[in-house]
Amino acid sequence: MFSSCFQVIEEITVNSDGSGTLMLTANLSQSRSKLASVMLLDSVNGHKVPSRQEIQEKMEEASNTLRAVKGISKVSHSVDFDKYILNIRFSFENVSNLNDITALIFNKLDVKTTDNSSYSYHPQSKTFTRHYAPNPQAKSEYQKLKQVDKAIFEGATYTNIYRFEHSVIKQSNSKAKVAASRRAVMLQCGVLDLIEGKINISNNIQLAQ
Amino acid sequence: MNRFFQTLATLFILSSASAQDLAHKIPHDAFAVVNIQTDHFFELMTVDDFDRSAIGKTIIEKSGGADLQGINSIADFGIALDRSGYFYATLSDSITYFSFLLPIADIEKFETHFAAGETIHDHGVFRSFTKATSDDSTVFAWNGTMLSITTPSLVDHYFQLDEVAERYGIRNYSYAEYYEQLTDEEEVSSWDDAGWVETDNGYDSVYVDIPPPAFPDSVDWADEADSIDTDTTDWGEIAAAADSAAFAEADSIVFGYDDYLSDSATSDGNLYDEYYAADQEIKRHLTSEWAEAFVWSQFEDTPDASVLTNSSYLSSLSKDALATAWIPSFEGIYTTLLPELREFGGSGNLFSYYGSLQVGLFADKEGFKLKSQMELEKGMAKSFKRIYGRRLNRKFLKYINSDDAIGLFALSMDTRAYLEELPALMKDTYGGLYERYEADIALGADLVSLLLDEAAIAKAAKGDALFVLNGIAEQEVPYTSYEYDDDYNYIEVEKTKMETIPDFLLMFSSDDVSLYNRIMSYVTDKGYLAEQHGVYSLSQGELPFDLAFARKDGVVFIGTSEDQLKAIVNGSYRGKVDNTTRRLLTKNKFAGILHAKKLSKEIPTEQLASLDRYIAFQKVFGSMGDFYFRSSGVKGNRISGEFVAQTPGGFDNAIQYLFSLVDYAVEQR
């Protein structure tokens, strides 16, 4: 089987008081014919293939988990089985709520981690910080995968976009770009680089007062 | 008569070579024999060519690395390369021996390289040393002409039998036993009879008589020649004959139990570990004694009747083979290697339907060939003949273009015969195997027969089919991606990419027009299919390729090309089939061919991202010959099959081609 592609986009909009919205999109459209074929099977490469209903149920379960997190509201999700695009979005009261979600996700995935990805925002100083430390467990788990499963990550991309009400004065990540309007910062990289720790997506963003 | 001459010819060939052929050392009732015709291998590839190949160089290099001095050629190991080597297994109810017999050309070279550093025992007529592996130990023994490498393996379940365990002083102590017996510690007195000597401290030593088991040698193989073509029940006797209940002379060995007991017991006083270790030690001694006797017999004795007197074995031989394997009783494999099957309560007939299995690996000008044949019990052969009684519908051939087709796979079965034979086969096979469910299985089988209208099903699908892989087409498929504006707002955009999809046509015979029409009308009414000029195409499927259906002259077509199906229906399709393909498909019950070279051309170059990969791929597959397999079904009471990997042009034989591929692969590293 040759490599397939997918895109993950994380878009966070931060209001000046620290509240905001997050939208996470997984676009597997580029592999749709393979996925359509795979969905007809019970298992592939030794992995069970979930049914549409099971995928819907998982998404519903994820939404319900998010709803229970303090400070999280307006949770919604969509699954497009024609284009194979999954999407989940919600509002948060404070940027720090995102850290609770990260912990929750890692906990669910049974990944032992402390502080390897955290978000913070200080309304007074108007600084937004994304701290990220590559997780060695991700790399070792990836190394354990069969070659055929590793191929899934080849060509996959990760994009994060941070949007603000105020202009960005400076940001610290050389891989990231600031939008023409200076109200957004975007970073794109390969998922594989992220897994292997070849790229760091940490960023300190200073906004105008 | 043909078989008679074949046997006679093989006998003649063998009798001229048997003076030095090690096969005469193999008993006629060996459980399995593999004949490795080293001599033929080196006829196809000279020793010099082998030494120059990547594989040969690696062997020579590794030998140097392993401190084997003076190895400049495969011939320097002292093993004769101009005579056959053998692997065989013999079994009794208590022990199985796996043995390699290799001819020695130069004993000095052999001893220099293989026996260096080992503790060698000189037994007069032969010398030996034993090498321990993780579970077993292997005995290396040799004289001036033969090397024997023998690994013995005890049959576990035999030593679980109470009377056997008692005879050898084996406790088979279970971990739980200690707790069960805490209340009555003296209840072990019955072990006295086993030769235990009770001392003040409990069991101190044990005296056991441990004679080696008699070698299986009691089947009258004169009957074998008849049994091959007549009755498979004789095969069962092979396993029965390999029974060592009758022991030869008794040697007395004294095992001190204290020797095996470790100093410490577990904290709760459970002696399980100690007893287990002691049991293992007794078994190790038994294995060692018996193996020694076995190896001794290989050098000292010649079997009363060697395997060369076994016509079934002889019929498995071919002077052109690189290797042949012969297993006299297929059932024997299961009853020996999977004794748990017996625990279901009955032996069943599952495996007694099958007789000897013969496999031969050939490498000639045409290519590598793996030929196999298996004897079937009369009734089974008759059922199979009925099941494979149909011939491939010749109309299929009109719709093949063998110049373009990458692969073809044909099957000719008779659905009606299959459905009619199935219940009886189920009853006989599984009914006996799962004895306690015999009545249920018989009832189930009868119900299946009652419920199925075999004739109606056979009318809908007669049982013959042909799958044609016409190519691997590239198809432009859309997908959703994103574009970002200056402000990183992203919008969904549709992009396209090329994907490879199979282009195939499946045909099967069907006489049931009305059923086909009813299904098609129903599915069309439901909106899944759209009909045009007699061709139904899948209108909203989620398959990555198009799929169309049609029917003409008693043949149902399912294919990816709507145009091809339309041409078939309106009679404008012009197929073309070469004689080789025609013969392969029509003369066999199962057959298939894959043209590797054509396939390599079909794989889109963009899928082979780098130039290196492209070159390597073309080198390996671009010059590769065709692959085909075929089975002509049941002939007499044998079912046979053949797999062939053809040698491409430019090579004298398949061995040379294989070695050149390995050489190439090594160069690329």
What does this structure look like?
The complex is a heterodimer of chains A (209) and B (669). Chain A is α+β, with helices and mostly antiparallel strands. Chain A has one domain (7-207). Helix content of chain A is 25%, strand content 36%. Chain A is built from six helices and 13 strands. Chain A has a seven-stranded mixed sheet with strand order 5-6-2-1-9-12-11. A four-stranded antiparallel sheet of chain A has the order 7-8-13-10. In chain A, β1 (7-14) and β2 form a beta hairpin. The radius of gyration of chain A is 18 Å and the shape is globular. Chain B is an alpha+beta fold and 669 residues long. In chain B, β5 and β6 form a beta hairpin. In chain B, α9 (233-241) packs across α13, α15 (415-433) runs antiparallel to α16 (438-451) and α15 (415-433) crosses α17 (454-460). The longest helix of chain B is centred in the middle third of the chain and has 29 residues, at 272-300. Chain A binds chain B through residues 2, 7, 9, 27, 29-30, 32-34, 36-37, 39-40, 83, 85, 161, 163, 179-181, 183-184, 186, and chain B through 477, 479-482, 484, 486-488, 490, 497, 499, 501, 542-544, 607.
Brief write-up:
The complex is a heterodimer of chains A (209) and B (669). Chain A has 209 residues and is an alpha+beta fold.
Key phrases:
heterodimer; A: 209 residues; alpha+beta; 6 helices; 25% helix; globular; B: 669 residues; three-stranded antiparallel sheet; disordered N terminus
Q: Please give the radius of gyration of chain A in angstroms.
A: 18 Å
Cα Rg of chain B: 32 Å
Assembly category: heterodimer
Give the helix/strand class of chain A: alpha+beta
Helix content of chain B: 25-40%
Low-confidence stretches of chain B: 1-19, 186-266
What coarse outline of chain B follows from CA principal-axis ratios?
globular
Proportion of residues in extended strands of chain A: 35-45%
Strand content of chain B: 25-35%
Count of separate structural domains of chain A: 1
Q: What's the main sheet of chain B like?
A: 20 strands, antiparallel
- Average pLDDT confidence of chain A is 84
What is the count of DSSP helices of chain A, taking H or I runs of 4+ residues? 6
Count of distinct strands of chain B: 23
- Please state how the strands of the largest beta sheet of chain A are arranged side by side: 5-6-2-1-9-12-11
Distance between the termini of chain A: 53 Å
